[in-house]
Design goal:
Helix Hairpins; Beta-Lactamase; Heat Shock Protein 90; 395 residues; six-stranded antiparallel sheet; 13 strands; five-stranded mixed sheet; 10 helices; alpha+beta
Length: 395
């Protein structure tokens, strides 16, 4: 019971308009006490109070329900509005006005979203007040209806927040599971990959095509695991983790990434302009991963009639790596979606991955303090990773 009461008081407290409503009612009527009460067949508790008469009530204060007129309102679901107790045949001898010493009084029912009675908007004063004037009465009814509607809104909001909290907890558990699953799969996958390599060296020529397919498939599985694991770790830890070190010949690692993609897509031409002695303070494997993701994206979505171009530049304290492919322009509304996780184009096929490549590439760029940008025209699309060079590296 106490837990439910505390929740009801908290619900009223969360309605930001309540203090303003109480002030407005007091100003409209001239009453010295205005409040919102939670009323049940056996209890009366204050939820919000504007007390200029010194009754000493505050949120959570309790009155004996039998001493209040709100008990009558709870039974009949009808408002009680009294201009003058002493002039009222019905209430002049009632015990409630004598107990609390008021002359004017009102109590209007409030309802939950389900239609269940919640309590009342009530007020009183030690002197006569003209509460039954049409304008005043209608305004009081309007304020009570407004509070009831706000109760409904707060319930909907609480339910939405609870559902969101549950979903966030579920999402966190799901990401933890994905990260652990990715880690646990690596061991048996490594065994398969090592075994395939041994068989490729010893198997007869007739089995080479099958083993080559197994080799490519196992590496594709490893790549998918890396993508999903990076995504999960990034979501849980706030970004891609890096192992930064000084690289004096980064072009060697980048060239290896290009060669691997060229072997997977031998029908596509990749033209690379990589200067010698690229010196950078970075996580080289991560930048290789960034380049690999951009290259795969360019090969899959670019025009096969033109080569994919890779270019690295270092000038004015900036490092730039760009990948350009020919083909139709990417619409502006889709460019904003490219770096979001699991986003795939409308014409994507099942063999084009999970839609994490560009997202992870962008996260790698951000973790390096850089940025990954796209420029798309009618003739070509270019993805450019740009970052400030941390400092000189001795080759």
């Amino acid at each position: 019971m106490q837990q439910t009461l505390d929740a009801d008081i908290a619900t009223i407290a969360k309605i930001s308009a309540v203090p303003t409503i109480l002030e407005a009612v007091a100003e409209l009527t001239g009453l010295g006490f205005v409040g919102i009460a939670r009323v049940t067949p056996t209890s009366w508790h204050a939820c919000a109070v504007l007390d200029k008469l010194g009754y000493g009530l505050e949120p959570g204060s309790e009155l004996d329900i039998s001493t209040t007129l709100c008990q009558e309102v709870q039974h009949t679901h009808c408002a009680v509005i009294i201009d003058s107790v002493s002039e009222s045949e019905q209430y002049r001898d009632h015990h409630t006005p004598r107990i609390y010493g008021f002359e004017s009084y009102f109590s209007i029912p409030l309802y939950r979203p389900s239609g269940e009675y919640f309590g009342s908007l009530c007020g009183l004063h030690r002197e006569k007040a003209e509460l039954n004037k049409t304008a005043t009465r209608n305004t009081l009814m309007l304020f009570a209806d407004l509070i009831s509607r706000q109760l409904a809104s707060e319930v909907v909001l609480d339910e939405a927040q609870a559902a969101l909290s549950d979903e966030m907890k579920t999402a966190k558990l799901r990401e933890q599971f994905i990260a652990m699953l990715g880690h646990d799969i690596r061991t048996p996958l490594s065994t398969i990959m090592n075994g395939t390599e041994i068989l490729r060296l010893r198997a007869p020529e007739s089995l080479k095509p099958l083993l080559d397919t197994m080799h490519r498939s196992s590496h594709r599985i490893a790549s998918l695991i890396d993508d999903v694991t990076d995504f999960a770790r990034g979501r849980m830890g706030g970004g891609i983790s890096l192992n930064l070190r000084h690289e004096s010949h980064l072009e060697t690692s980048l060239q290896q990434a290009i060669a691997e993609l060229q072997s997977v897509f031998p029908q596509r031409q990749i033209v690379a302009e990589l200067p010698q002695g690229i010196a950078l303070f970075c996580d080289a494997p991560r930048l290789v991963q960034l380049l690999s993701n951009l290259l795969k994206n360019a090969i899959i979505h670019g025009s096969p009639a033109a080569p994919v171009q890779v270019e690295v530049q270092q000038a004015n304290g900036m490092f730039e790596l760009s990948v350009r492919n020919s083909g139709p322009a990417i619409p502006e509304e889709k460019q904003a979606q490219l770096f979001k996780p699991f986003w795939r184009s409308d014409n994507a096929t099942g063999g084009q991955g999970l839609g994490l490549g560009l997202f992870i590439a962008s996260e790698i760029a951000i973790s390096h303090g850089g940025v990954l940008e796209v420029i798309s025209t009618d003739n070509a699309t270019t993805f450019t990773y740009r970052a400030r060079i941390a400092g000189p590296v001795q080759a």
